[in-house]
Design goal:
The complex is a heterodimer of chains A (about 450) and B (about 150).
Chain A (H helix, E strand, L loop, with lengths): L2 H8 L5 H39 L5 H14 L5 E7 L5 E8 L9 E3 L3 H9 L3 E3 L2 H17 L20 E9 L2 E10 L7 H34 L4 H8 L10 E13 L1 H7 L2 H21 L3 E6 L2 E6 L8 H25 L5 E18 L2 E7 L1 H12 L5 E4 H6 L4 E9 L8 E9 L4
Parallel strand pairs in A: 10-12
Antiparallel strand pairs in A: 1-2, 1-6, 2-3, 4-5, 5-6, 7-9, 7-10, 8-9, 10-11, 12-14, 13-14
Helix pairs in contact in A: 2-3, 2-6, 3-6, 6-7, 9-10
Chain B lengths: L17 E6 L5 E6 L2 E5 L2 E6 L4 H8 L2 E7 L6 E12 L3 H16 L10 E12 L18
Antiparallel strand pairs in B: 1-2, 1-5, 3-4, 4-7, 5-6, 6-7
Classes of the chains: A alpha+beta (about 450), B alpha+beta (about 150).
Amino acid sequence: MDAEGHKAVTDERPDAQPLRTQIVQNQQTIDRLNRDLARVSNEVRVIQQISREITSTLDLDEVLTIVLQAMERVLGFEHSMILLKERAADRLRLAASRGYEPSGVGVEVAFGEGVIGVVARRRKMIRVGNIGASVAYLRGIRARLEAAGQLPSGGDATTLPGLPAAQSQLALPLLVKDRLVGVLVVESPRPSAFDELDEVLLGIVGNQAATAIDNARTYQMLESLSRLKRFFSPQLAEAIVTGGADDPLKTHRREVTVVFLDLHGFTAFAETAAPEDVMGVLREYHEQMGKLILAHEGTLERFTGDGMMIFFNDPVPVDDAAERAVRMAVAMRDRVTALSSQWRKRGYELGVGIGIAQGYATIGAIGFEGRWDYGAIGTVTNLAARLCSEARAGQILLSARVASGVEALVETDEVGALALKGFARAVPAFRLVRLKPAT
Amino acid sequence: MATLPEEIKAAMQGVIPSHVVTCARDGTPNATAISQVYYVDPEHVALSHQFFNKTVRNVRENPRALVWVMSPQTFDTWDLEVEFDHAETSGPIFDVLDMQIEAIASIVGLKGIFKLRSADIYRVISATKNVSERIPLRDIVEPRGGR
């Protein structure tokens, strides 16, 4: 290299300074892009891992936990929550959160309310980095409008879930095709905490999460549907899982009319007859009784061999529970009378005894994980069962409460006070003679 | 080369209010603080138009304006020479601005009262970083993680 060339590099020419600044700036830009690239490739790798995890389970809680853990582990978001859309309403419910005390789970947000509600309504992502400043600005405007009498005075619209001092929020609609499943939210007490890259990364996780959540919820729904269909009519089971009716498996207290029936002579019959014949008789009996239960909109609580317990007024409230119970019991008695004449030809002596009582019971899921049953607990069920065992074949015994409730409808005989197992005092009972002819 | 550098985006999240200087047709200047200058693309920014005010009126008569923004992370500031291009009352940019305004308005009980009239789109003629104003911030850690 000659002396001239060497001199050109070291000599400070007057126009060299801006060039040098430009070079430094370019280098800074390249460094920043490299950092971003490293961040993206690392995060994309972890996101692939997450998507494998969340698509390999159908447990909703597990899916939600994985997604929220990923928010912190991969993206460094300390405060995140998932709200799910309610099935039958334009409303979200906080399903899981991370980084909040209290968790806020169960809090509801109406569509259009706050950042989250607006995201749900518009089904579009939102990124706000200046909530504090914007809220303060708009409160100022509200105060001016109120002072000018252009607006009735009032406070902030509603209490919304999240950090009380959130400055930044990134909220993403969870969509499966065009259907809103829920909203994924991350927030920070720092202003401007999220950038465009966060939007992209959150979007990828969000898409995976939406599908996984939807699958888990569908599975959960089908499972509870099949469980509910064991106790309730298909229509009611559907109504319950789609949110159109309260879940009757949640413990609650209600006045019900309870009908107990069993086949007298069944034990002796089962001991002597061939198992095929026993099953045949039971099937015929159950099928016929089942039709009558459905026709009177009763709830079959349980089968115990030849016994059955049916409620009225739960889970569907009816204002004529006692009347329905009595009409059903009479129809059952008539049907079994017809059946037993056929059975008699085959040599089986069977007849039905029925007990009906009314009163408050605690109703809900009874049992343990994996084997839940819908059931009722209360004196009323014991009373109905005892009256049933007191009833002779072809008899329908009513408690005093039921008898007085259906006075206008049926003729009864007073049986007198019965000493029943489990009852300290003798219990008055009435025998149903017949339905009064319609006037 | 893009007029707006990538790093200016942090200054366009509305954390630190921005300033806009406009002139009426007769040259009377007007300076005002606004809550947010929105980044549209490397050549354009948007200002929200909720109320009819002097800025809105001025740029429709005399489109040139000067915008000052500051990054809340580095406290770098920029002067932008801009020119009012057009007002949008629908479309993706309008939606983003409108959605943010609706969200915040619903928090403070102004749902449906405080509304976006238009997203005013400005073309950026130049962006100058005010290097001399920069405060040395050796102690400020790169704001990543722990959000």
